[in-house]
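W.,

You were right to be curious about this one. When I first looked at the sequence I had no strong expectations either way, so I just let the prediction run and decided to look at it fresh. Below is the sequence, 523 residues in total, followed by the output.
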Amino acid sequence: MAEQKVEKMADFPAIETPEKKPKRNKYAIGCAILASMTSILLGYDIGVMSGAILFIQDNLKIGDVKVQLLVGSLNVYSLIGSAAAGRTSDWIGRRYTIVFAGVIFFFGALMMGLAPNYAFLMVGRFVAGIGVGYALMIAPVYTTELSPASSRGFLTSFPEVFINGGILLGYLSNYAFSGLPNHLNWRLMLGIGAVPSVFIAVGVLAMPESPRWLIMQGRLGDARRVLTKTSDTKEEVELRLADIKETVGIPANCTDDVVSVPKRSHGEGVWTDLLIRPTPSVRRILIAAVGIHFFQQATGIDAVVLYSPRVFKKAGIKKNNHLLAATVAVGFTKTCFILVATFLLDRIGRRPLLLTSVAGMIVSLAGLGFGLTIINQNPDERIIWAIVICIVTILAYVSFFSIGLGPVTWVYSSEIFPLRLRAQGTSMGVGTNRLVSGVISMTFLSLSKAITIGGSFFLFTGIAIVAWIFFYTFLPETQGKILEDMETLFEKSIWRSKLKRGGNTSQVQLGHVEAASNGNAHQ
């Protein structure tokens, strides 16, 4: 048995043996950090708006309906950015799309900070939302395409790390400026968000372009140079280069630095292959990507983060400075646990983290719903144990979210699409994410009035249970697979599901798919 194992491993390049872990590629890490910093823009807006809205409502004299529209509208507006980002990134490249996102958000943040009234503030939200949509879609795509397979999960989780870092910065900004007059504090909170976008746009110019995008343009020489810097070994450079060339339609023996690429490689016909006539494996990939983004938001994370001051107020914390201090604790907890998750993604895999995360969220949401229901039923009493349950379960909920569902969503959805469909496919997932987030954030206050705030979290509990079942039955493990093998992985899952349902799939067909998958298992 031991001899067979040694013989089998000898057939594969050293980079692909599980016993020999390559060191982290510092150049790839630096590029991933720069690209993922665009996610700070969304995180900061989410965090800062949760506290700024307390002062906006008082200063501009607006009701809860306008509050919901103001808070949630950015997520809906970001649909425009995420929908356009796929085609834009195929046109001008991944790198310049990141710069474009930073420029748009810069003007949006300035408009919000200088807003004289509610209408102007909403226009600023519209502009900033488009920038956020671009940033959310392009950061994971760029990082995924740049990363070696050995550390792709680690690097592609960076956008979620920076979202959480941005949320914490937003909470700290709230706390820092809360003592200023109401006509000034919220404007500074929102306007200062323009500062990081400048540094991001300038810093990104030092990054290389995505090697996969370069090959899509026929620039093989440039792509090889980038792959040399971002791969673990020379063997991996050749492997990645050959796989991408095959996907794009460039002959394997082509060694020219610049070649002519088939027209369809530039993005034409993608929507047809993605939506109108997808293969079974592409259809399953699309459902998986859209599904994981849907459940990430439908389980209520934005309700907790955006309205955490209101939730804490319902739980019995009354003073504004105490409310904002409690939200800082939420942001700090989220950031700590997302950092833990980044080091586990490539060690224990996506599925174990995802399933453990959602299971913990189910218990936490049920506990939070219970605690808030007890408090709501006894409005004249200060029930300390119920308050403690609420605070503990909120912190537990964001911890479990950050260790699994938060980062895995971005990693998984950006790595499973075939190269030619990746930009637009990922944009569909991000669009779903932002749409559901917008619906949740624009209806949470009304929902909590209709079925009580405790009932709202019981509803999220039910959705989280459905999410766990979906993830368990529908999402295969992608840890360690090279990007060009994802269709085979999902095709294999389809054959297995047909066999389990008692379909008429022949053993010959199943064996063919198994052989194709096992041939790449060492990747």
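Here's what jumped out at me. The CA atoms of residues 15 and 233 lie 7 Å apart. And, maybe more interesting for your project: The domain at 25-214+268-480 is CATH 1.20.1250.20 (Growth Hormone; Chain: A;).

Coffee later to discuss?

I.
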